Amino acid sequence: MLRTSLLGLLCLMSASFSSALHANPYEKTLANGLRVIVKEDHRAPTVVHMVWYRAGAMDEVDGASGVAHVLEHMMFKGTRTLGPGEFSRRVAALGGNENAFTGHDYTAYFQQVPKRALPEMMALEADRMANLKLDAKEFAQEIKVVMEERRLRTDDNPQALLHEKMNAVAFQAHPYRRPVVGWMNDLENMTYLDARDWYRRWYAPNNATLVVVGDVDHAALFRLAGKTYGRVKRQVLPERRPPVEPQQLGIKRLSVKGPARLPYLAMAWKVPKLKDVDRDREPYALEMLAAVLDGHEASRLTKHLVRGQKIAQSVDAGYDATLRGEAQFVLDGQPAEGRTVADLEAALRAEIKRIQDEGISPEELARIKTLTIAGQIYKRDSMMAQAMEIGSAEINGIGWRNIDRILDRIRAVSAEEVQAVARKYFSDDTLTVAVLDPQPLPAAAPRPAAAGLRH
Amino acid sequence: MKRILLAQFWLLTALVSAPGQAGVIIQHWIAPSGARVYFVASRHLPMLDVQVDFAAGSVYNPAGEAGVASLTVGLLDASARIGGTLLDEEQIAARLVDTGARLSGSADHDRAGLRLRTLTSKPERDAALELMRAVLSTPGFAEEVLAREKARSISAIQEAATRPDSIAAKRFEEAIYPSHPYGVTASEESIARITRDDLLTFWRGHYGARRAVVAIIGDVSRAEAEAIAQQITEALPQSPAEEPAPVVTLPQRETIRLPHPATQSHIHIGMPALKRTDADYFPLLVGNYTLGGGGFVSRLMQEVREKRGYAYSVHSYFAPRKLEGPFEIGLQTKREQAGEAIKLVETLLADFLKKGPTEAELKAAKQNLIDGQALRLDSNSKILGYLSLIGFYGLPLSYIEDFPRRIEAVTAKQVREAFARHVRPENLVTVIVAGD
After folding, report:
1. A218 Cβ partners below 8 Å, 6+ apart?
2. Which of A56, A200, A288, B109 could form a disulfide with A413 if both were Cys (CB 3.0 to 4.6 A apart)?
3. Minimal C-alpha gap between A307 and chain B (Å)
4. What percentage of chain B exceeds 90 in pLDDT?
């Protein structure tokens, strides 16, 4: 019943928005190779302006881990014509917000600004695409900031530390084994020359995608892009050698000690990713499986393990089909007070086994389809979310034109396909299991005995 | 890896909230139920957001029972009635998901409430609103769900007691509010004490329509919004009107050190400082932009991070509440250099208290706050937040429209005087977790 009316709604929407949606977003590639994607959204007089570089931690080499992220920090330190920190001052003076982020697959920079500030943003961002000034003095300060960032996010965060060590075990050859922030020793030994080499190698218009979402006219935007970014010279990019992880031949287990009260468990299986939007079927089935397990309030893991059996304090499932590297299907969680990681591991395995044996119900499938349709409407409330979606689809080689197509394909997955991927990909041979072994705080004052069991 | 924690960005923009451009037309009325309603029609997308907040935050926790306010809002969907049917938590969750709606709860110091996002196609919208009404008006607080959630809360509290950031935040609240409910956080003992009757009593006493603010934005007409507001508030319990909370007394200057093996010290410096309705709100907002609120361009960021590399994240903010909410400076730094970093921050603060912003800094702050207004209102979700804020704290309906003028009018002298009134060295508390 609900599904029918929702689909009806979607048709209605496509009809009423058809004039706007028909050509929107708009796309153009400049002569220097820069891809420009514009999504007009005239609800408010604001704009999101983002540049994505197809260069992330996965493109680094051993001994220089973290350099992609360090360069991201250095991008705010000035150009031939702009002083250190001046970029941020200009953005602030125009009423804007800005930031940048680095992942395994990409490095991206963005500003959210009132629309009249857009031309200046484009001039500034184009300037630092070509004219960054890197010197030893600024580098020496900023590398300390990055080390503080590593301490904050990883070294003093036991679960983050566990995931860092887990990736290093799950992947032997694939660059996803190195942390995005970099090993501390690599940061300590890095020089501004590493950052400069990185910048020279990867920061080029033909290795970048410009995404603009907001109150703009696409034709005017393309002209402006030509006048700003269009002046940056194309360059020869290094050859990329596609990294392939050798086949895993048996279960891997690791344990990490850290100050914590609750243990924590993460299980990661190597699974296929999306390569061909039209031909692939399994990645969509894996997406559906993740959603059935952990896509909403009534999904299986929370319902069964947190609420029903009370084995877990918290539990999650995750799978990302669209990435440059290799995909994993991850289940993780904390056991409830009085339960062990072994209990939780057994319970998570039992949930997978149940789907292997019994499959999933038509109601469960219908629910995910409903949520997907609703999600497509809700996401349009945020220009930033739309820009993120377009940028990451471009970087991952999927392309923005396929964003909604992928959602349609996920909606078309059958219960049998979900059962089939559950049977095919969850063997121990490709599994890595990591456990946080909680350590009491050495200097902590004695705590009063709590309700429940201690262990 | 982001260049600055997004969470912190959110904090800075959200807590010292600065609204956007004129042109958002807010309609306000009192529903027959007695609830105050704030509505903006937004016909761009076929969706609807409804937020209902009550004067039911943690400041209203009964003595010795910290945690009641958050458990109450958290367990609204543990069971409820629709028509004559009792629905358990699984049935409620399933029904909600089947409508495509999202429902979430939140509780802070002053308020607690629910936020719903739904499609506006009639069957989905009606079903989602019916569920929202049911969980607000007929919660059963099922015993077995309460027992499980108490155990989970206790586990979470114990886990937080191992984390340097959580330890520091909790100790800071306790220290700046030594004798006020704002400083009391839930403990294993207080959670263990809570019964189903406590939740029912709290709900009856605090979830009445007269304590409610309903914010609505989306693809509905005024008439529809009126019907929605009445529908979700007409069956609420009869609660007494809001009672005044106890007066905040200021702490004495002190430094508290707590041990932890972390590689970084977590540092908070601050005191109770600002009521949401205080006339000094605007001078403090403008001044704090220069001190530590303005992202990468603030003095704290420039001196602590950019020039010396002491910290990844350093900020200051005012978090105004119904009563005096905190002023706080926060940072994390390698433990060996915590002493130097704190000395630097203290010098920067003292200098700012003495001299205030320069004319150039004042101008830059105003420029960013005024020109950035459109960005703070460019989604339904953001506007909903303002409706709720304006309604709950009784700010003028013209708050958004007046904002640029109020910012523009601030002078350097006003900033200095306002800081002198609200940030006093003799009352500043410093908490250092994992210092040497």
Report:
1. A24, A26, A38, A40
2. A288
3. 8
4. 92
